[in-house]
Amino acid sequence: MPKKSTASxxxxxxxIAIDNNHEDIIAIGTKEQIVEAIxxxxxxxxxxENDVEDLVNVYELGKEINLVTDKQIKIDFDx
Length: 79
Description:
There is one protein chain. The chain is of the alpha+beta class. It has helices at 31-45, 49-55; strands at 14-19, 24-29, 56-61. It has a domain at 14-61. It is built from two helices and three strands.
């Protein structure tokens, strides 16, 4: 009897859409969610296709990573 795979399927990629004109995040989500959000955003803003090409960037998000940082504080008193 073949073993059942316990590995889960990878999650679909998430995307982020940014309005470069106003430096706003339009949406974060799946490709379908991003397309819908951009369409609504453009309709609300009165934009056409050229505006979208010029003002909206979409990036694929990678997996989340955790950063560990150390804070170092130095206080000097000049007397």
